[in-house]
Every structure is written in C-alpha cells, then in structure tokens.
Design brief:
Length: 191
C-alpha cells in the first residue's frame, strides 16, 4: 500500500477495533499506543525530538510492538528500542526517512545493534540498515546468516556491500532503491 492508503487503512482498522471494544488508542506525551491485557503496542510518535527512545514500559506494561512509526514534520535521526521490544513492522522503519542509527537496550533478548545497524539475535539476521547512515562501504559482519526484506531499502549513501561466507539468504528487495550501489560482493550459494 502507498503511504496515504496505509495510514487511512490503519486508521479505519483502528476505528473498527475500538468500536468493537478490542482496544483503545491512547496518547502519551510522545507516543500513540494501544494497551493490550499483557503488553503495549506503540502506533505512532508525536514528539519533535531527533531521537526517539522507546520506553521499556507504558502504564506498567511492557512495550513489545512498534507498528506504523513514521516521520512527519521533523527528522528522526535515531531510534532506541527498549528491552522488551520483540515485534516490528515488516519491513521496519520504512517511513522514517532521516534515520541514521538504531540502538537497542543491551538487555533486549530479540534484537541488538552493531554500529547503529539493527540485527535479530536468533540466526544473526540483519534487520535494518538505516537509510541515512553515512557509510559508502559496509561489510556485513561474519556470522550473519540473512538480510531481511528491504534490509537496505533506499540506502542512498551505500555504494558497496561485502557479504560474509555465513550469509545464506537475502530477503525480497533487500537492496531496493540503493541508487549509488555499484558493487555487491555476493557469496556462493546465496538464496
């Protein structure tokens, strides 16, 4: 779906779910969120800071999901994920255009970051290379086995990517929109 269509669909689905009593969208100082019986889903950010810090908890419940986070009238340069975040949009942070770093609480069992790049711990999967990260050359670390869907989506500054021999899978559109990409060192046997 396109950006406007996605937002309208999300708002419509949210209105239906609220009308049926499934959940209620609430607003904190910085975030729009949904409270579930055992967790919280962040559905939007309304602050104006260049760095978003996803809290560990809201209303005493763990923040476990982030969906629909997008950049509106101000640049978001960095996102810090709390220790309980275990679910993200697929692909994550697609509409955060100025993103240059993603950091993760070291106690998070699902995700971690290396030099501002987001990885999934299980299977050592590269989840998201921030689109505005300034790195003309990037070497995917040894031990990484996969790059998720749109992992390098619209990474304009990346010209060259080296892949380790451990890499066995590239998700769909892994390098879509990388306009300056001139060199990808692909390993043998990659799916």
């Amino acid at each position: 779906l396109g950006g406007v269509a996605y937002v309208k669909l999300r708002e419509a689905l949210g209105a239906v779910a609220i009308a049926l009593g499934f959940f209620q969208t609430l607003h904190a100082a910085e975030f729009d969120y949904i409270v579930h019986p055992d967790s919280v889903t962040i559905t939007g950010h309304r602050g104006d800071g260049a760095e978003i810090v996803i809290p560990d908890e809201i209303e005493g419940l763990p923040v476990v999901r982030i969906v629909g986070l997008r950049q509106y009238d101000y640049p978001i340069h960095a996102i810090r994920l709390g220790r309980h975040v275990s679910e993200l949009d697929s692909p994550p942070f697609t509409h955060v255009y100025s993103l240059s770093n993603i950091w993760v609480d070291p106690l998070n069992p699902t995700f971690h970051s290396r030099d501002g790049v987001l990885f999934r711990r299980k299977g050592e999967t590269l989840v998201k290379f921030p689109r505005r990260k300034s790195a003309a050359r990037y070497e995917i670390p040894d031990g990484v086995t996969a790059v998720e869907e749109s992992g390098f989506l619209h990474c304009w500054s990346v010209e060259s990517v080296s892949m380790p021999s451990s890499l066995v899978k590239l998700g769909p559109s892994a390098f879509h929109g990388c306009g300056l990409m001139t060199n990808i060192a692909i390993v043998e046997g990659l799916a």
